[in-house]
Amino acid sequence: MSINVSNTPDMYKIYTSGRFTFNTKCRVRNTPDMSDPGIVTYQVGQSVNYDSKLKNGNHLWLSYMSNSGGRHYVPYANTDKGTS
């Protein structure tokens, strides 16, 4: 079942924070775009502390600052498939 975000523009950001634990492997990206090849992969059970969420394309993304000061993104939900 899809997640209806048809009225939500791309790059819409929500300033919220939390901790997310991965239930599947997930690539960390420099941009919130699935075509970005990514820089590292989180494994099942690993977690990340995020400081915002955003919608881009057919994914919802977590966003955080890395230890080196760069902003990174990880997809946490596919809005077309309704999966997270």
Name the descriptors.
44% strand; 84 residues; 0% helix; mainly beta; two-stranded antiparallel sheet
Task: Characterise the protein shown here.
It is a single chain. With 84 residues, this protein is an all-beta fold. It is 0% helix and 44% strand. The chain is built from no helices and 8 strands. It has strands at 12-14, 18-21, 26-28, 40-42, 47-50, 52-56, 59-65, 71-78. The chain has a 4-stranded antiparallel beta sheet, with no helix packed on it. Strand 7 and strand 8 (71-78) form a beta hairpin. The model has no long low-confidence stretch (mean pLDDT 92).
Compose a concise summary of this entry.
The chain has strands at 12-14, 18-21, 26-28, 40-42, 47-50, 52-56, 59-65, 71-78. By secondary structure, it is an all-beta fold.
